[in-house]
Each structure stands twice: as C-alpha cells, then as structure tokens.
Amino acid sequence: MGRGVAPGGDPDRSSRFLRFGAEALSELELLSWVLGPGGVIKSDEAARRLLERYGSLANLAKARPGALRKGLGLGPVRTGRLLAALELGLRASTPVARTGIVVNRPEDLHELLYQEFRGLDRERFVALYLDTRHRLQEMETVSVGSLNASLVHPREVFKQAVIVSAAALIVAHNHPSGCARPSGDDLDLTCRLDRCGELLGISLLDHLVVGEQEIISIREYGWPVSREGC
C-alpha cells in the first residue's frame, strides 16, 4: 500500500480525506477505512455487508462482538478495530466522567455502568473505589467470566482498594441474559465481600447488577445476612 493511500486501495478516497477531512467520506467509505486490510474479503465489501445487515451506524453500534464476527468475514482484528472506533465515537459524543462522581444513591452510577457494560456478551465484574466523601476515585475490572458465569476472588477486589486508600467501594457486574435479577451466586458473593470489607475496614456499600433495561441494587433488593461459610 503506497503512502497516503487508504486501506481500500483508493487514492481518490485518500486525497479527499486529506484535503477535506473525514466528513467528505460516505459511511461506507469510513467503515472501509476503519476495517482496513487483513480479512478474507476486501474492506469495501465488508463495510457494505455491515451496512446492509444493520441498516445504520446507530444499529451497528449496538451489535454484540460475537454477532459481528459471525457470517461477515471480519475476523478478530477487524472486529477489534470496528469496536474500538465505535466506542471512541460514542465516548466523544457522550462523555461520561469515570472519576469524581459523588455517589449518594445507586442511580448516580447508572449512566456510567450502562456505558461500561453495553454490548458485552459475557459477564464482567468491576469494582468502584470511593474516598471518604463517596467520590469515585477509580474503577477497575476485576474479572471477565464465561458467557454465563464470572469467578471473583475477594483478594482481587480489595487489593486495589488498599492501594488507592479507598474508604468504601461498590461492585457491579452485568448479566448478559439481559435480566438484572440477582442470582444466588450474586448474593453469596456479596456476603463474602461484605465480610472481607468489615475485616479490612473498607465498607462494601452496594453490589449493582446490570441488565439490559434496569440496574438492580442488591442493597435495596435485600442485603444477604453474613453467615458461617459465606
């Protein structure tokens, strides 16, 4: 590929991009540029298939990673490029603060968590570390599980809390099924983390379960009572 030529091999496209900016290109051309080389089909054809299947960039942005890789010939590298570009676009247009949020109620974290878990096809468990005024200091991914389950060890949750001198923390994870109702495993894990927090002097304020349409606070749902074996 020569210098200045777009991934699709179209020098005219590259010239328009450099002279007039990205707004001079069509959606198909922009998608082709993002996808780049490396797949079993040309980037222009891959972009065309994406637009035909999803109808619009807005629908494409909601697609799950697994669905993008099936039947379109994208492969993991192109899928990664596309997801990264879509995420950058979303964050640029709807920025959500990841630190400094004052957390007085579960709803204060809803926007951040919906963005964080959007489109995931497997469970992801995060810990949100708060200072003495309940301001969000840091959010860290603790575990990424299989399609239906996630393994979380309290050691990994509280290790970073000690490092950043957190006064309290909130944990959250998604349910890929879309249903936010806490499972028995969710309640057992909450119980274990609550006991660890008591021993360390770092309060576990809540465990939020993120579904497709709602976020359930286990604190409001029914906090599990610490018991032998938790």
Overview of the structural elements:
With 230 residues, this protein is α+β, with helices and mostly antiparallel strands. The protein has 2 domains: 83 residues, no CATH class; 117 residues, Cytidine Deaminase, domain 2, CATH 3.40.140.10. 43% of the residues lie in helices and 15% in strands. The protein has 10 helices and 5 strands. Strands 2-1-3-4-5 form a 5-stranded mixed beta sheet, sandwiched between helices. Helix 2 packs across helix 3. The longest helix has 19 residues. The termini are far apart.
Helix-strand pattern, N to C? HHHHHHHEEHEHEEH
Nearest-angstrom radius of gyration? 22 Å
Classify the beta-strand content into a percent band: 5-15%
Spans of 5+ residues with little confidence (pLDDT < 50)? 1-8
The oligomeric state is single chain
Placed side by side, the strands forming the largest sheet appear as 2-1-3-4-5
Overall tally of structural domains: 2
Taking the alpha carbons of the first and last residues, their distance comes to 60 Å
What's the total helix number? Answer: 10
Structural class: alpha+beta
Q: Overall mean pLDDT score?
A: 84
Write the CATH fold name of the largest domain.
Answer: Cytidine Deaminase, domain 2
Overall shape: it is elongated
Question: How would a textbook summarize the main sheet?
Answer: 5 strands, mixed
| Total count of strands | 5
Protein traits:
230 residues; alpha+beta; Cytidine Deaminase, domain 2; 5-stranded mixed beta sheet; 43% helix; 15% strand; disordered N terminus
How are the elements arranged and paired?
Elements (H helix, E strand, L loop, with lengths): L10 H10 L6 H9 L7 H12 L2 H5 L3 H5 L5 H19 L16 H8 L6 E7 L5 E9 L9 H10 L4 E7 L9 H17 L2 E8 L4 E3 H5 L8
Parallel strand pairs: 3-4
Antiparallel strand pairs: 1-2, 1-3, 4-5
